[in-house]
Design goal:
191 residues, mainly alpha, 5 helices, 76% helix, rod-shaped
Length: 191
């Protein structure tokens, strides 16, 4: 074999190795870039879930609490009306008034032994708090996944050979999710 064929074959092999390395690096960077975009989409989806769910849960809890308040008010008022029965019996002037007083006594006996309705508003508020916590945990997990995908992407594009092969305009360094200014301070809860 001639020396020129060996040199030409070596050059072609070197070019092929460079091309394959570039192609592999480029395709891997694309994969990481897509993972970053997907992770950010997951963060946005979780935000949307919170925006959809929390107002509906809040209105449900408020509605249930208002309904229970109305029921308890009516039951309490009905029981408070029992106290005037003795006066109705003593002041009865005819059999119809006596019969009406008797019906009030029967109603009073039923009310006296009837249990108060069970209050579920407190449970509903507890469920609401659980849903809030769960939603915020999902958001936090999505943000962590996003930051992890950013780390993998940035590590890849900034590697020794990859930083020489990859165009920084096509594959710019991405910034991880950062907290808002002042969020390191604990929020003040007021009741």
């Amino acid at each position: 074999m001639k020396k020129s064929y060996i040199i030409l074959g070596s050059i072609l092999l070197f070019v092929l190795i460079i091309f394959m390395t570039y192609r592999s690096s480029y395709n891997t960077a694309i994969g990481f870039q897509e993972t970053v975009d997907q992770s950010w989409g997951n963060v946005q989806t979780t935000y949307q879930r919170r925006a959809d769910l929390i107002p509906q849960l809040l209105e449900t809890v408020k509605g249930a609490a208002a309904n229970e308040k109305d029921i308890l008010t009516k039951v309490t008022n009905a029981r408070a009306g029992i106290t005037g029965i003795n006066d109705d019996i003593l002041n009865a002037k005819n059999p119809q008034q006596m019969e009406l007083a008797g019906r009030k006594i029967n109603t009073a006996i039923n009310l006296a032994f009837e249990a108060y309705p069970q209050i579920r508003s407190t449970e509903n508020f507890g469920i609401f708090q659980t849903q809030l916590e769960g939603t915020e945990n999902r958001i936090n997990k999505s943000r962590q996944d996003y930051n992890e995908s950013i780390k993998l992407y940035n590590t890849h594009i900034r590697g020794f050979l990859n930083s020489m092969f990859l165009n920084p305009t096509t594959f710019p360094k991405k910034e991880a999710f950062a907290a808002s200014a002042g969020s390191e301070n604990a929020p003040k809860v007021k009741f």
